[in-house]
């Protein structure tokens, strides 16, 4: 058995091949260069398919959560260390796949085994091998939905999306996470929880997220911060300083997760989607579509409902609630609510939005901080916890929404069982959505009231009745001035696709 210390990464001072050979003795990467991850329909026709089945079967049968040969170990890594809705969501999971893939190779005895991916932008129905309930099928679990088309959006791949990391304007990472989350929600079952790595489809889902990131970044890396190989403070962006942590004895230098090839992986399909997949006959029903940046039929704003308002108040020395609504119950319906603001709060909000507009024009740091939509203390019901649905959130949705541009100008994000589980596994949940840029791009002159709409989006087998109880939904002004990003480092032509080489010292 490979010693545990073989996994531990320290700051690399050599080229990739030598570094990986030292950390993973005998690995295929140390001998043969990049490994290509295949799309499932291709992968299942290779000799690695049998290796994958045997390894997953063994990992599911192993109930020792302290053993890396158990899926429970990897589920616990996800529970205890993964970032969701925070920086490094994409990069951390890239390293997670890297380590899990290595364990598959060790357990199967197949050094050529790679994690396959499911290209749900080409076909949104889960591969049949994962939905076959035959006894002994290691890929089968009971799930709520096998089709994820209603979770998909082309928004991350719009030509205007250039920045990468969360916290920058119009960034790719949060947009792709807004696709990632509802895929978890619609599939449901264990995938709607933080124990989602217990479902084998989890790894195909995240391999596709990783592939889509790489495809978006090609050929020039777009706005991804630059790093030397290895990381060097003198000519690398501080974004890549430090380590990703997966366990007390399992970590990885952050800079290695900048490009898949720096971890020895590539994908057979490296193009971004240009259209949503066709609607399968099984999903041609009255289910509601997620309507962010897609060419869908006209959608009417959901009807308004009465609320119990909450007043504006100080939340902390640097945050103020502008008011909201308390004790909201979400079910299979869609609804809109009106959030009224006091004259003082409306004036403060108008000032913050004006400053954000100036920031977008001049790219200077805003002094007013950010405007947040906060979903505080959401609790998922028993029926809701199984997933099979989610809610698309819209701010100031017009009575009729018929074009992708209008949807994009009002779309906030999604709310579902998976997001709530991710936000609550270390304490009471509170979900925040930064709506500063959204408000700055809306032609609003009267800030005495804001409207919030939630549109229920269903999978194949959605729950009926109450799914989520929310303690409070409110808008907040954050006066915390975020640290300005340092000027981006100049990027040499072809840096993103260039093979890594040691930094000269």
What does this structure look like?
The structure is a single chain. The chain is an alpha+beta fold and 505 residues long. It has 2 domains: 36-227 and 258-267, di-copper center containing domain from catechol oxidase; 285-478, Sandwich (Jelly Rolls). 27% of the residues lie in helices and 18% in strands. The protein has helices at 16-23, 28-32, 40-43, 48-61, 71-81, 89-108, 172-187, 201-217, 343-362, 404-410, 417-424, 436-441; strands at residues 35-37, 243-247, 250-253, 265-267, 299-300, 308-310, 313-316, 319-330, 335-340, 370-380, 389-395, 400-401, 411-415, 430-434, 449-458, 468-478. The strands form 5 sheets. Strands 6, 7, 8, 10, 14 and 16 form a 6-stranded antiparallel beta sheet that branches. It has a 4-stranded antiparallel beta sheet with strand order 9-15-11-13. The longest helix has 20 residues, at 89-108. It is globular, with a radius of gyration of 23 Å.
Order of helices and strands: HHEHHHHHHEEEEEEEEHEEEHEHEHEE
CATH architecture name of the largest domain: Orthogonal Bundle
How much of the sequence lies in strands comes to: 15-25%
Number of helices: 12
Counting DSSP E segments of at least 2 residues, the number of strands comes to 16
Unreliable spans are 1-32, 282-298
Describe the sheet with the most strands. Answer: 6 strands, antiparallel
User: Would you identify the CATH H-level superfamily of the largest domain?
Assistant: Di-copper center containing domain from catechol oxidase
Which fold name is given in CATH as the topology of the largest domain? di-copper center containing domain from catechol oxidase
C-alpha termini separation: 36 Å
How confident overall, as mean pLDDT? 88
Number of domains: 2
> Fraction of residues in helices?
25-40%
CATH hierarchy, class of the largest domain: Mainly Alpha
